[in-house]
Amino acid sequence: MVNQNNGGNGAAAHEDAKPQTIQQNLEAQAQGRLRGGQLSTYACAECGGTLWQIEENGHLHFQCHVGHTYSPQVLLQQKAVLLEALLWSSVRTLVEKGTLVRQMVNRLPADADPEQRARIEQMARLDTEQEQALRRMLEAYPNPSAQGYIVTEALEKA
Ligand SMILES: [Zn+2]
User: Fold this and answer.
1) In 12, 61, 118, 140, which residue has its Cα 20 to 30 A from 6's Cα atom?
2) What pTM did the predictor assign?
3) What's the CA gap between 21 and 33, in Å, rounded?
4) Measured in whole angstroms, how far is the alpha carbon of residue 119 from the centre of its chain?
5) Hey, where are the domains in the chain?
6) Ligand 1: centre distance to CA 63 (Å)
7) Per-residue pLDDT tens for 12-42?
8) Which of 42, 76, 62 is closest to 154 using CA atoms?
């Protein structure tokens, strides 16, 4: 409708998926006018773009300006999956960092300053403690792929 200048970028393929609110917001933004749409504080799970909050016919959904669309339940599920992946990435990084520190301690000369050696060994112990704390957190965390369904079920009973 409005987009006559596709410019050959990949985003143009989703132009038609944009509801009127997003299109009006993008035009207002381009012209430096105040925008009337409800911009959420959430980022798109697929492209990292800003999500608009749109309520149509009593249904709430979120959509970025390239057309990725989420129900609140799916957005929650996406955020939970992302959070779990980031936490596991942190666990892995702590394991790697602690191992590397221990490897470096083993390369210290025999006559290295014992105080410095102890400080470096303490760094490795802290990495292990933090890794274990994150593992405990992950074990106590509900299954991220089930969170959207749990919320949906609770909303349907309400
Ligand atoms: Zn997106």
Assistant:
1) 61
2) 0.68
3) 14
4) 35
5) 10-70, 73-157
6) 7
7) 444 555 677 778 877 876 776 665 557 888 9
8) 76
83-118 burial string, b = 16+ CB within 10 Å, else e? Answer: ebeebeeebeebeebbeebbeebeeeeeeeeeeeee
Tell me how far the alpha carbon of residue 34 lies from the centroid of ligand 1, in angstroms: 22
SS3 for the chain is CCCCCCCCCHHHHHHHHCCHHHHHHHHHHHCCCCCCCCEEEEECCCCCCEEEEEEECCEEEEEECCCCEECHHHHHHHHHHHHHHHHHHHHHHHHHHHHHHHHHHHCCCCCCCHHHHHHHHHHHHHHHHHHHHHHHHHHHCCCHHHHHHHHHHHHHHC
Count of Cβ atoms closer than 10 Å to residue 18 Cβ = 22
CA distance 50 to 39: 8
What separation in Å is there between the alpha carbon of 67 and the centre of ligand 1? 6
**Alpha carbon of 95 to ligand 1 centroid (Å):** 33
Compute the distance from residue 80 Cα to the ligand 1 centre, in Å.
17
> What are the tens digits of pLDDT across the range 30-76?
776 665 557 888 999 899 999 988 888 888 889 998 999 999 999 99
